[in-house]
Amino acid sequence: KAMLLLKKKRYQEQLLDKTENQISNLERMVQDIEFTQIEMKVIEGLKIGNECLNKMHQVMSIEEVERIIGETQDAVEYQRQIDEILAGSLTEEDEDAILEELNAITQEQMELPEVPSEPLPEKIPGTLPL
Prior knowledge:
Blueprint: H1 2-59, H2 62-88, H3 92-110
Keywords: Coiled coil, Endosome, Membrane, Protein transport, Transport
Region (Disordered): 109-130
Protein name: Charged multivesicular body protein 6
């Protein structure tokens, strides 16, 4: 009877080992499936991104971008030339008039109010100054 029980125990242990191995294999398969699903989502995202880039490239060609950059550089150069002309167009008389106006403005700002001629009140001990 003991021998039969030991054989039964041994059989159940083997069955348990097989079941644990099968569960481990199933868990591995589930992880592989989940990882594959994530990979598929990434690939789908890359595919959509690639299609969007292709559409953007169709809308804006390299020649168009180069043309826009060239026009911008031309406009900046033109504005710089205008600035140089305006900066150099002041005569000596204009410079003198500007300096006089600047002196007048700074003098106006520097004028201070007159100081009162009344004496200050004497400090009374024990009171707080105002």
